Amino acid sequence: MNKTLILYSYYENGKNAIENFRFFLRRALKRNEKYSFYVNINGNTVIDLDFYLKKYSNLKVIYGKGICAWDGWKNIIDMVDISKYEHYIFMKDIVLGPLNTKCTGGVFDKKGLDWIEGITENIKKNQEVIISYYGAPILDKLYILPYVPVKFFCVSKNVLSDMKKYDVFSKLSYNSSLQLRLRYKQGKKKYKLMKIKGWSIDELKLMLDGSEDKSSNIRYIDENISGDVKYLKKVSSDIGFTHFLLESNYNYVSYDRRGITNLNILKYYKKRNYKKLSNIVRELYINLPKIIEHLIFWTNIPSKIVSRGGRIKLFELEDESLGRKDIGEMENW
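The chain above was modelled as a monomer; its predicted structure follows.
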């Protein structure tokens, strides 16, 4: 029997985190001996967990110290016998899901699978890592590769073994209290590209126009520096993890209600075909509104959505924020 370990890292830093965690408890937990759910809570929570702990014998909650999700996941890894498992699903409290598991015509409906089986059955050679969607910086101005958003991902036993071997959890740990938003100005619009965390003063001076002011949120990127991977690998765990996977010869694919999408990123990376990778990023960014409505896990919920046959329908995608809809309305998605 192939078993799966689900690792959820939680820090109660606002309403969204609480909503996301409650949604996870209601929708993600399964009473199945194949699954072990571990939640690491950095700090405390207002959520009463007794009900879920009594209902699900395969749910464990630990209170571990840490400053980011990587620390929370490491706390779980250090206390669990990971050799018992074949697959490992990592989640942060900034994602909402699983969504789209009750929609008609999707992979779950066609195959009769739960959300965990739907993901883990696709772990195989050249698909050792499964993500919710490919990260696509706007028009490749910041980063040329479709990257791995580390808010949700699933890996094989071999990948986890290498993550431990090369101390990925410690190397990618960051200070989550420091979040700087980088934006690129194009015409009259400003686009939020990504959150960069864990900057040192020297890196701030180099990357943010020489400023030492950590409290300022908005800076414009110097295009001569923005594509410098050596800086991005150090200051972004998304980029750092992406390069760890590629340099370790692991391909990553995305999975949503339609099934697997394999863009062969490893293949083009090994060939150093950056023109092809850049074109992929552009296509991903342009098609983002079409992709969002199929996602199983997503950071925010589009501002105007309805459910048709259990499927999320996207009407409008805002520039700066996707907004959030009443969580109660998501229960039948």
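Residues 15-27 form the longest helix (13 residues).
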